[in-house]
Amino acid sequence: MRIAFLIAGFVCVAAASILPASPSFAAQDLAVDLASDHVDITTGFNGSNLVLFGTRKPGADVVVVVEGPRKNIAVRRKSNVLGVWMNTSFEKFEDVPVFYSHAVGRDADKKSKDSALVIPEKLAEKHNIGPKNIIARPDDMSEKKFETFRAALIRTQQEAGMFAKGASQIDFLSDRLFRTTIYMPANVPQGQYTVMTYMVDGERVLESAQTRLKVEQIGFSAQLYKFAMSFSFAYAALCVALAVFAGWFMSVVRLNI
Amino acid sequence: MHIYLPIAEMSVAVEAILALGIAVGFLSGVFGVGGGFLTTPLLIFMGIPATVAVGTQASQMVAAGTSGALGHWSRGNVDYKMGFVMLGGGVFGSVIGIMIFRFLQYLGQIDFAVSMLYMVLLGGIGTLMLMETLGSFFFKKKTFRSEFNSFRISPWMAALPYKMRFPHSRLFISALVPAGIGFCGGLLSAILGIGGGFMLVPAMIYILGMPGLLAAGTSLFQIIFITAFATLLHAVTNHNVDIMLAVLLIAGSVLGTKFGVMAGQYIRGIYARVSLALLIIAVSISLAFSLFMKPAELFSVVLW
Fold this sequence. Notes:
The complex is a heterodimer of chains A (257) and B (304). Chain A is an alpha+beta fold.
């Protein structure tokens, strides 16, 4: 029996060493990893750069999408009421990422034809790449209204630094190796993010890979946040006590001049 | 230097917040006002979410109120009985105020309501202050009521039930009136994140007929409790009090108060009052611009 197992084991190992050459294992052309799978928000946090490394099949284009925490978002519109500008209408969008950024790398020899950072329209639509394609139209919203409010959503999120304006660049370090840096601003929301990497040939996705990323407060500021959320009464009492003490101190300062 | 605010979930420049605290502290040192009417709009302008600005501002007002009230208390300018009656109305007012705040938030009208209320209140009070100060300067008219209460209570007020004696203020009036004033103060402090001293003191002088200094001391005394209560309500229901932001603001205002009091000794009262009135009017006008001018961006985004 033992010998039978041993032989079976040998066969497996042998098979594994041969298989990578066979077509079914082509999936290993694309491999990516983040330099760090979490962004830590500390007290001194002022934005950070997310670094992603990967390997690709030589000649293929690469698109990297970073998006995160998906929330329901309302877009409000102001209009003039009796001379005053106030919010008068709003539209709700479900399951929209609060943060969105993508990077594009076109192979060097194709660059001369069109701009390096443009993704073919069909590809973008099919795989929901780019801010325009990540927002789904609610069933009860007319096409025209959707266009207006979607454009407004993208514009305001871009102004707030939550959606990147245009794609960033992916650098090809060698035939296979690539690297990209995506900026996360200081007001980046906490939560779960996904990083999707597509290896692309023209309008066709050859392979894709998904990585997860966690953005959260750590250290002192995280403890403060947790304390404020779970013991809100004690937290409030602390705030008040601190303020009363400061007020007393202020009056001492005032009287001693 | 940047610091991350754990509740506001954003990073701010420490210098900017400190400078704001110093400026507001300076004003309160010179003029004896809380300065909340400036802090909230400026915090919002700096990109702090309106809800966090209002909630945190409430805790800063606790500090400003305590320091002011201690000064008046040492000179015997607090009518405790009056303060507690007003507080009764004020607690009720802040609970209603928080409910209105949440409802306006739900409607998406909180920013509009806050700006509108500020514009009307500050515009009205600034104009009144300017007129009174200039009037007293040019016509030497005695505008502040004397310490002895020669104030005539209007007949409808005299007809109200639950009459109460307030020995310290030398008043015998219905408890409903100070409670009502306290109610309005509580409402304002919950919605606007201010102490409301600039509303309460004139109301106590002109409606109740209290002497000016006693009105100031008593209003500060009850503002401590109202703003503390508002802080508590905000922190528990909305989680919008940022202790880091509060500490920075308070630290700045302690510094600013020191300079303000020093500067106040060299500024003549009339100039101080005129410049405060002009400042209040300026804030009101800038708010009016934001309401009446077509904004550059008509759309805004909120998490739903």
